[in-house]
Design brief:
Mean pLDDT: 73
Number of helices: 19
Structural class: mainly alpha
Strand order of the largest sheet: 1-2-3
Oligomer: single chain
Length: 536
């Protein structure tokens, strides 16, 4: 048995090291994953020496493997381009947060400035689930190149945009491409490295992403103040085009062993795509998340639009589940994955962790802006301890998991724990689901914190103004101004200003409860996950 596994491992390593540019058929590409038949006739697939039944298993149990394959070694040029693309994509989000007011003001449309980053998140959430299955069908490299191209095109459109809505369209295109960058990079790592090394590689990617998010704001502000905000987007396009060229030349186009004949007749790749399921899932997520962003800002929470959008989203997601369970020949997200508790807990941890982090990132700068009248730059700098903590924690987790432990709370540990618990044939779609949890958690965290602040602050301020003997009409005007702009604090008497600050602080205390609740829930889910020794 050991000798047979060793031979399969050697063959897999040899095939992975081949230059796939010399292969022209789908069968040759998919042969990178070896298949065999067991005594009972059920098909098996062997990936990195781990045999997995292709039947729908609720819990995957990897076999211990003592030998490991060799893996492709890529040039420093290739690694540098991929890292540069990830760095720029990560910086883009904080860059837009720092410059969205300047961009919107140029078009006299400041009230819609938040759509510059909301549209990016929503587009990413709606398209994220597609990338895993598409990479199984068309290959990792092909889909990664599409992601790069979409991000480059979107960035160029933003730089050239002549109206607010043209720029928002560019952000939607960029968000659609950005959704695949991190998830596909993570999946490619699992293709090319043993699982026990994945955490270390993932921690390096997370450090790059964290550095990008940290640099985006200052760099974006500097460019906007010097050569103009348009060049902060124009400059991104060449980086992604260069990354496309290097990726196209070096990266093997890995697919899964599922790219085979069905009943002796090869299926069209296009026919394998679950368009109906993808439409239901993307639309459902969009209609669930959209009211969380517009409620309390564009429309009141009591507006009938809010429950109507929630209901429509719920119906679409129900149709998605029915489609995947009954009609889809190759589901974009197999429902059987949700019967695996490790998958469910991994997704729950990621949603809660991201919601806790984004809830905190909304409230901390606001606290310093209100209480100390700090500038946006200084207030944002107070988030640096969290950024540094994420970086150090990611590196420590990568080293810890490499020593053999397989679970935890950080992204590195959750990703590896998820991959260790599933059939390797499902790793791409499972990873897409995990990375879909990030924009969902982000929007939930921001929406919950904003809703609490906007709900508690006016009520608390009204009570304080009443205690000061201010009439209801005047109090209503003060509340409206205080919730609309922070510089109003500089225009009112000290006594009223103190009341406004105290009301803000009181509402922020409640908003911290969102982060605490989400963190506790993530911790509970992590404790319920099984600890695994990584043997492959």
């Amino acid at each position: 048995m050991t000798n047979r596994i060793g031979r399969v491992v050697d063959e897999t390593a040899r095939l992975l090291n081949r230059d796939t540019s010399s292969t022209g058929s789908d069968d040759e590409v998919s042969s990178q994953f070896s298949s065999s038949s067991s005594i009972d006739g059920s098909s098996r697939v062997t990936i990195y020496g781990t045999q997995v039944k292709s039947d729908d298993e609720e819990q995957y149990e990897p076999e211990a493997v003592t030998s490991e394959p060799s893996h492709p070694v890529y040039s420093n040029s290739f690694i540098a381009r991929v890292v540069a693309a990830l760095l720029v994509a990560s910086a883009d989000g904080s860059l837009v947060i720092a410059t969205h007011a300047i961009i919107a003001s140029e078009f006299n449309d400041l009230e819609n400035s938040s759509w510059l980053f909301i549209s990016f998140l929503l587009a990413g959430a709606a398209t994220q689930s597609l990338y895993g299955k598409l990479s199984d069908i068309y290959g990792r490299k092909s889909v990664l190149l599409v992601s790069y191209a979409l991000f480059a095109i979107g960035s160029a459109l933003i730089g050239a945009g002549q109206s607010m809505w043209q720029i928002i369209v560019g952000r939607v295109i960029s968000g659609s491409g950005g959704a695949g960058l991190m998830s596909l990079a993570a999946v490619i790592i699992t293709d090319l490295a043993p699982l026990r090394d994945v955490a270390s590689w993932q921690s390096y990617l997370n450090v790059v992403a964290t550095v990008g998010r940290s640099l985006g704001g200052p760099v974006g502000g500097f460019l906007a103040d010097t050569i103009g905000w348009r060049w902060s987007f124009f400059g991104q396009a060449p980086i992604f085009l260069l990354a496309m060229i290097v990726c196209g030349m070096v990266l093997p186009n890995l697919t899964t062993g599922q790219d085979r004949n069905d009943a002796g007749v090869k299926k069209s790749r296009l026919a394998r795509i679950d368009f109906l399921g993808a439409t239901f899932l993307g639309s459902g997520i969009l209609f669930i998340l959209l009211p969380l962003r517009i409620a309390g800002e564009k429309v009141p929470w009591t507006s009938p639009i809010v429950p109507s959008l929630f209901a429509l989203g719920a119906v679409l997601l129900t149709l998605f589940v029915i489609t995947e369970a009954r009609w889809a020949k190759e589901p974009i997200f197999p429902m059987r994955l949700l019967r695996n508790r490790e998958v469910v807990f991994s997704y729950l941890i990621m949603v809660c962790q991201t919601a806790a982090q984004l809830g905190m990132m909304v409230s901390v700068p606001l606290y310093f802006q209100v209480t100390q009248r700090s500038s946006s730059t200084i207030a944002g700098a107070h988030l640096m301890p969290a950024v540094i903590g994420n970086t150090i924690g990611g590196l420590i987790t990568g080293a810890w998991i490499r020593s053999g432990f397989g679970t935890g709370i950080s992204l590195n540990a959750v990703f590896v724990a998820l991959q260790a618990a599933i059939n390797p044939m499902d790793k791409a779609v499972a990873a897409s689901g995990l990375y879909l949890s990030i924009p969902i958690g982000s929007i939930l965290g921001m929406a919950a914190s904003n809703a609490i602040i906007q709900g508690v602050m006016p009520v608390d301020l009204a009570s304080r103004l009443r205690d000061l003997g201010i009439e209801a009409t005047e109090a209503e005007r003060i509340i409206k101004q205080a919730t609309a702009r922070l510089d109003y604090l500089d225009e009112i008497p000290e006594q009223i200003s103190t009341a406004v600050v105290q009301a803000y602080v009181h509402s922020l205390e409640y908003s911290h409860g969102v982060s605490l609740f989400c963190a506790v829930l993530a911790t509970a889910a992590a404790l319920l996950m099984r600890n695994r020794k990584l043997t492959r």
